Amino acid sequence: QVQLVEFGGGLVQPGGSLRLSCAASGSIFSIAAMGWYRQAPGKQRELVAQITSRGGTMYADFVKGRFTISRNNVKNTVYLQMNSLKFEDTAVYYCYAENGLRYWGQGTQVTVSS
What we know:
Layout: E1 2-7, E2 10-12, E3 18-26, E4 33-39, E5 46-52, E6 57-59, E7 67-72, E8 77-82, E9 91-98, E10 102-104, E11 108-112
Parallel strand pairs: 2-11
Antiparallel strand pairs: 1-3, 3-8, 4-5, 4-9, 5-6, 7-8, 9-10, 9-11
């Protein structure tokens, strides 16, 4: 079992920045990848970014150049630095971890509004 706790959502103006954190506990030694999905009202959940245990990263096209995913293996934490935020980035952001199974965090709201 893997438990995930997210931090860092909130309200930000367009063009602003936020950093999300996701702390993992439990069977963390088996985690192959962690990342973030998001779900806006009335829309399907979509992948935002992923980082593997070896540090390989991938990003959705709509966040490339604006968001950066990173991890601190000592703290078992993954971060999502979000810059140049747009109205359309408003969503609930969910952290996930994979070890053959997929585990989810509780979600954190990000609202981009003027």
